[in-house]
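User: I've been trying to design a sequence by hand for this structure and keep getting stuck. Would you show me what you'd pick, starting by listing the structure so we're on the same page?

Assistant: Good idea, let's start from the same input. This is the structure you sent:
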């Protein structure tokens, strides 16, 4: 009689699987709660203790770690020595192993989890049996995913148990146990330094993409398995439109980054994204007004953009959005009227982020300590995530010019400093009345970025005659950036400070009668 060992935490489908194995003539060997559930379902079960001759001890901590189990799984059926040995030791071969593991990741995700709780959810016997069976997959069918039960029954019934299929199950096992060990090591290494000497990341594929940045590049989208599913782009829910492309996903990431400083604001904010950086960003009294103000910064570049909101999109905003060709629109939600209007655009990708993502964007505590990983050929870069600058805060700011900012200038400086967080370096952002009026992004020199921001503002009709403020993501290395800012109608500047020529830069601001504030913090985004 062939023998199957079933020991699962996730009992989805296990009764039906065990019943199917029994009907195929398998003896079912099981442990603890799995055995109890199978018996309650009327399935004959042999307890693992009856097989090993040794009781389960230490509240079930030790039950399958026994030579009778290991030998039955690891014996090579085509190796005479192995088969002679298990016959001598009176060990029965085990042909099927179905095991899934204690919920370690779910346990440590709980806010009140203790070390003792976490340690109890580190499975020992389960990974051991899985690895044994996966190692011996030419002779043993190993299953760690309940989704594979039906396929396994069909193949076992038809005797179509080919090596490639067993190998695919073994690969799934080693990926599963590797990720499980990774989650444990990450958890236990907390407090041992930000950057451990070895670091593994388990990725789960969400979908294949049509192509990458360009049509000659293959691509796929993965989520990081060891982080909560409520985080970032991987948690977005798509309601309508074509499948996301590689570039859409990058732009959506930039969009969430751009609106995150405004997530706690009572007033709606909107960002218009092109090539992962904003060409417009604004706050308004309504979602429609926020969009119209963001769009007015650079309406030409907004063609084919990704647009993000901090508040639910209503029908009025949707009517205006539908007038422009947009790749994606993302918001915490959409009214029925908005969905009805936007879905008339067949290819428009409509996405929402759940409340947990909104909380993540708004709560800096969720950002602290999170690691950001970026691949380069032959290696990877890792850094801690940066907190977004919040528009209502100016802690540590220092006025360095003779003239102090006015109340209105200070309001706009706070907005501009928050808005520039999502702009690619070298970055200059001009702002007036809680909206960006000109953005110079990704330039090789800061003075060129300042000139470009002024040009964009003038091109969009936001000329220098009304005055505006300027944010720079890093210090001005020379006074020429300040001269360009004054020419663009800037009356106040916010920048990190820290240049060896700060005195020269401050003198230029005084010469132009500008107010200048140093924040002491750089906001590079490479």
């Amino acid at each position: 009689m062939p023998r199957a060992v079933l020991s699962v935490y996730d009992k989805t489908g296990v009764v039906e699987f065990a019943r199917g194995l029994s009907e195929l003539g398998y003896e079912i060997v099981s442990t603890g709660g799995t055995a109890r559930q199978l018996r309650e379902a009327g399935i004959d079960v042999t307890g693992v203790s009856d097989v090993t001759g040794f009781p389960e001890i230490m509240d079930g901590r030790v039950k399958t770690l026994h030579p009778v189990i290991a030998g039955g799984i690891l014996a090579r059926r085509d190796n005479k020595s192995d088969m002679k040995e298990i016959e001598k030791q009176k060990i029965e071969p085990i042909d099927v192993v179905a095991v899934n593991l204690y919920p370690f990741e779910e346990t440590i995700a709980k806010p009140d989890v203790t070390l003792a709780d976490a340690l109890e959810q580190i499975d020992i016997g389960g990974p051991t049996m899985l690895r044994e069976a996966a190692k011996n997959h030419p002779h043993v069918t190993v299953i760690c995913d309940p989704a594979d039960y039906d396929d396994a029954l069909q193949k076992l019934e038809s005797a179509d148990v080919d090596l490639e299929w067993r190998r695919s199950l073994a690969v799934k096992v080693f990926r599963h146990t590797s990720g499980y060990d990774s989650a444990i090591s990450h958890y236990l290494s907390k407090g041992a330094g930000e950057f451990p000497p070895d670091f593994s990341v388990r990725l789960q594929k969400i979908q294949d993409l049509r192509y990458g940045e360009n049509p000659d590049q293959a691509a796929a989208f993965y989520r990081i398995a060891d982080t909560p599913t409520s985080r970032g782009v991987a948690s977005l829910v798509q309601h309508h439109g074509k499948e996301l492309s590689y570039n859409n996903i990058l732009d959506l990431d930039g969009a969430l980054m751009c609106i995150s400083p405004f997530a706690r604001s009572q007033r709606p904010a909107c960002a218009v994204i092109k090539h992962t950086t904003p060409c417009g960003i604004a706050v308004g009294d309504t979602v429609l007004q926020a969009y119209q103000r963001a769009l007015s910064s650079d309406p030409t570049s907004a063609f084919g953009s990704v647009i993000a909101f901090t508040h639910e999109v209503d029908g009025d905003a949707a009517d205006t959005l539908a007038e422009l060709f947009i790749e994606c629109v993302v918001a915490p939600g959409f009214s029925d009227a908005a969905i009805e209007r936007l879905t008339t655009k067949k290819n428009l990708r409509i996405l929402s982020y759940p409340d947990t993502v909104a909380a993540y964007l708004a709560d800096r505590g969720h950002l602290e300590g999170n690691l950001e990983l970026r691949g380069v050929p032959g290696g990877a870069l890792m850094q801690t995530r940066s907190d977004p600058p919040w528009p209502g805060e100016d802690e540590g700011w220092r006025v360095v010019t003779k003239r102090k900012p006015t109340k209105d200038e200070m309001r706009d400086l706070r907005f501009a400093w928050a808005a520039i967080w999502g702009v690619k370096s070298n970055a200059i952002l001009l702002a007036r009345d809680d909206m960006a009026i000109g953005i110079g992004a990704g330039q090789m020199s800061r003075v060129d970025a300042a000139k470009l921001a002024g040009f964009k503002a003038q091109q969009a009709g936001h000329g220098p005659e009304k005055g505006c403020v300027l944010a720079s993501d890093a210090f001005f290395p020379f006074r020429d950036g300040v001269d360009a800012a004054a020419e663009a109608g800037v009356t106040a500047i916010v920048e990190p400070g820290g240049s060896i020529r700060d005195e020269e830069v401050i003198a230029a601001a005084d010469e132009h009668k500008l107010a200048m504030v140093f924040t002491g913090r750089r906001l590079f985004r490479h």
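That's my pick for every position. To get oriented when you compare it with your attempt: The radius of gyration is 30 Å. The first helix runs from residue 14 to 23.
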